[in-house]
Amino acid sequence: MLDADVKMQRICVLGSTGSIGVSTLDVIARHPDRYRIFALTAHSQVHKLAQQCEQFKPEIVVVGTASAANELYALLREKKLKTEIAFGAEALCDVARSSSCDVVMAAIVGAAGLPASMAAAKAGKKVLLANKEALVMSGQLFIDAIQQSGATLLPIDSEHNAIFQCLPRPYSRRPAEHGISKIILTASGGPFLNRDISSLDKVTPDEAVAHPNWVMGKKISVDSATMMNKGLEVIEAHWLFATPAEQIEVLIHPQSVIHSMVSYHDGSVLAQLGNPDMRTPIAFGLAYPERIESGVAPLDLTKIMQLNFQTADFKRFPCLALAYAALKEGKSAATILNASNEVAVQAFLDGKIGFRMIDQIIARVMNRSVMSEVLDMDAILECDKEARALANEIIAA
Ligand code: NAD
Ligand code: MG
Fold this sequence. Notes:
By secondary structure, this protein is an alpha/beta fold. The protein has helices at residues 2-7, 19-29, 46-56, 66-78, 89-97, 114-122, 132-138, 140-149, 158-166, 205-209, 218-226, 228-241, 279-287, 301-304, 318-329, 333-349, 357-368, 377-396; strands spanning 9-14, 35-41, 60-63, 84-87, 103-106, 126-129, 152-155, 180-187, 248-252, 258-264, 269-273, 310-311.
């Protein structure tokens, strides 16, 4: 009994009602001997959160607002659950840094996830990072926080998880020392890979979120359709693996079976393959350095039969070019790119702008912004706020 207690990992799932959150709980439910839920958090889906409380019995749950907390309180009382309830951004940081938890799954979408992800990084947790926007916005500051606290950072984004698996261990963060020539990020190309470019103006939010291979939240699905998702992932790879932009290549691979590759100077290319199911990288992160069952079906290459590849067309996907430019520019460019993208994607989902306006709005915000050094969290959050205001102003004009 004592042994089991020592090994039991206490988990905080930030964003438990989302696509990654639900997949995380699915893996955790398969291993009650290894994982216990300390905290669950959700913005507003209180019914789903109440069901998760019933199944996983967390000590504490965090929601976005006081009214969501009241609603949840009533639901939990009906279920005779006495889970502690908190609300608001500071409460998210508190659970992420709590001494009662060992592992934080950072699966809130967008900039809203940065403060809590950073709190987990500073508190030395094992941080399972799905929330790529947090790293894109904060870059070096996030990596510094991880290194200074002794936290373990494990990428959950499938491409970065694949790269992590294909890198030598220990990895020195100096690619040349390991004979690495480049990182190859694979990309499905999303729903509009082969669509006539002139018709992209008219695509609807429903068409944009219908990803061919992955079922994901709306924001990342639109990002996949514009390929800003891959652009954010190029920046994410730069920070995770200390690789310069010139050594990160995007390769279109419509089947999403090869999740990414690492190319070495001797001509070897190491790849990680699997069915497109996020439970594989999630299980990898939870159990690392061990391997556990994830519920993912075994890969059957005889059924897939073909793996295709093509180069990424920067004219079809201008967001990809914008992201590379932001990475090369440095300073606050990636924070501004991310903020303007979030505003433009939401405006598209709300029917306020057309699909092709997304990249145009980001480009205009980038052009009109003065890039500055962002040396602390306040500077990043201020920069995020200003870029959002500018994007909203451009949309309203
Ligand atoms: P989602 O929209 O399905 O879920 C988002 C979660 O964040 C929900 O639980 C929601 O309650 C919470 N949330 C939203 N706004 C919030 C706010 N303001 N404050 C607090 N919580 C808030 O998103 P998802 O698809 O699960 O993606 C989550 C993150 O993981 C994103 O950063 C995404 O880029 C990344 N990711 C997702 C996938 C995937 O397959 N879904 C793959 C790779 C990376
Ligand atoms: Mg990805």
